[in-house]
Amino acid sequence: METVRESRSTKVAKEDYLMVIRILNDFYGEASLTLIANELGVTPATAHKVIEHLSNEGYVVKLSRGIYTLTDNGNELAGKMLGKHRILEVFLGILGFSQLETHVYAHELEHVNDLVIDKIYNMLGKPRVCPHGNPIYGKPEGVRLSKSYPGRVIVTAVAELKSVLGFLASNRISINDTLTVIRRRKGNVTVEFNGRQIIIDDSIASGIIVMESR
Length: 214
Ligand SMILES: [Zn+2]
Ligand SMILES: [Zn+2]
Known about the structure:
By secondary structure, this protein is an alpha+beta fold. The protein has helices at residues 14-28, 33-40, 44-56, 72-94, 99-109, 114-123, 162-170, 202-205; strands spanning 31-32, 60-64, 67-70, 143-144, 151-158, 178-185, 188-193, 196-201, 208-212. Helix content is 43%, strand content 21%.
């Protein structure tokens, strides 16, 4: 897997929690404490404490044991932060950073003020999607690779999670690449890419959105 420098302080901002919960919701339909903690590189106990706090502030609600979603207020704040994050990703992509790097480095820059973001957004010509195929404002639509039928598919969007982006980077798969779905089994899907068969666990394949290719 490619190495990405991470100079961000170890303190994870509350906004990062909201963004991760939003991404997990958009792609997986739910956000579990385990996945939230994994993604942010904190212990489940730490994540739980912060989430309780966010819930008291009216941003997060608990659906069932260890499963969370955002309130309307939480969704709005997370959407705004993700928009800024994705504008910065487009900018970093133009500077030549890889898909994984744009995501990691955008997190370091996204706390800059709205005026700076607006200027960058306009300079970029108001892009519609980020380097991962996700709408700047909104959620990606389409078929999950974990649910797609055998045949050729094009990768149109991917979840901005280190697990998914790391998997794609280590297999050199990018947005707009064509994969051939060989078979789908309970828990995983086998694809062929560049003459190589790869078995992809559903936890990753659910984070990859594809479109049928003809
Ligand atoms: Zn990102
Ligand atoms: Zn992105």
